[in-house]
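Appendix B: complex inputs.
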Amino acid sequence: GQNIDQPTEMTATEGAIVQINCTYQTSGFNGLFWYQQHAGEAPTFLSYNVLDGLEEKGRFSSFLSRSKGYSYLLLKELQMKDSASYLCAVRDSNYQLIWGAGTKLIIKP
Amino acid sequence: GAVVSQHPSWVICKSGTSVKIECRSLDFQATTMFWYRQFPKQSLMLMATSNEGSKATYEQGVEKDKFLINHASLTLSTLTVTSAHPEDSSFYICSAEQGTGSYNSPLHFGNGTRLTVT
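Resulting structure:
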């Protein structure tokens, strides 16, 4: 079966750095997405990786290793507004998006 | 760009009634829209894929007669929850892709509809 694993919850301090991991086993691979979802709101797109390596976008970076079935989202200079759930999703060979359950990130002052 | 509007943002209805949720792509045409359901602290669950001008494709376990989907134009899809029951209470989210269906096309989501059935 297809599976995506993320930690359920993480806590970090304002101003610090946090890394949210995602591992996947899917039927084929056509890219991995990271989304941010604030409580009670819809997800918003953060990043897309299809090749190995690091993609940087301001305070957020996303890394992919296809051979390991592994990705992480790195958030730097954490702000209170970064408190949200972070969803990892993989597009499989059938073009379907397989979603992880999300990681709830709690930022403390 | 790539704004998806969903309405209503929340609705409370009595058991046995029907509720219609609208999803519009405001600044792009969406041949395909997706309807998701999300229970508290759980992942997004794809309910159905809505295709303009044709029947929706439902995921396994989703009752097509209960969750009616209509995609009458390239900018509007509707989901009607018929004869709603308390177990249908959930967060319903629509989404659409901007672009020609390439692999790196992200989904753009509406703001979701919180449905509470009493």
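The mean pLDDT of chain A is 94.
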